[in-house]
Amino acid sequence: MDRRNTKKIKLGNIYVGGDSPITVQSMTNTDTRNISDTVSQIIKLEEAGCDIIRCAVPDMEASEALEKIIKQVHIPVVADIHFDYRLALSAIKSGVSALRINPGNIGTKERIKAVAEAAKEKNIPIRIGVNSGSVEKDILSRYSNVCPEALVESALKHVNILEDLNFFDIAISIKSSNVLQMIDSYRLISKKVEYPLHVGVTESGTIWRGTIKSSVGIGTLLCEGIGDTIRVSLTGDPVEEVKVGREILKSIGLLDSGVEFISCPTCGRTQIDLIKIAKEVEEKVSKLDKKIKIAVMGCAVNGPGEAREADIGIAGGNGEGLIFKKGEIIKKVKEENLVEELLKEINNL
Question: Which of 45, 91, 145, 217 could form a disulfide with 50 if both were Cys (CB 3.0 to 4.6 A apart)?
């Protein structure tokens, strides 16, 4: 697929846009003022493969806490700020790698200029974030309701404010909880600007529903070449957001690292407890730092053939299973030993 050619911006030691890899973001759900809890969560997110992390900054105490947090983590930290320009200035002093703030919501032109100049001096980009619940009333009145055109107009209004101040280190997100509206909004704005786009379905729901909605929305746009960085917004542990985001990228060939895991849906031919085995294997290889494709198949007749592209896998029989590499059977193992033997072979690869 051909990716949209966008402006490249830098967050800490990571680039977003242009020919840079698509990054996976998340947001802490700890109280930013609780430094130890926030650092602990960010470390877990780093281990899960998070590339960029955002922290809420509701007050000055949270903004000042960022300085200590940043010193203890290894990925770029983005300060999420609403309305108060002083928090943005403080976050910049704390050493954040980017701001998420809408310039039109922080008051007078002098205040906006102060933030833009401070960010420009430190080479800190600003992400403009518009969603279906934040469109200005005057824009809504022209369109009667929230629609892609209204979302795009709102985003461009904030962009124009920064451009008038000669600030162009910008990223844009334009999210909706409605998947089709979100898709159409990103399609529309991608034709109007060259800034990198942060893609996601906002307020997508619990882990199960939110994963489905996010996969459809984010996946559709990425397959069209739209999107430079993504966040899967889930009601739950943010580590799950990162896991889902990385799997979305893997599934369409945009992330070529770590384990790719496939398993069959089972059928009447299955004679082993494949569901239990698949869950166990998936869990045990989840943190494996190997570029490898693993298959867990239920049928010894078709398994090795259907999963021929897998580097290694198992196929079940009657209380036993076959272990195969690249479709070639290497050994027969009792069901109770299948996972153990498979893991041994994986470690030997």
Answer: 45
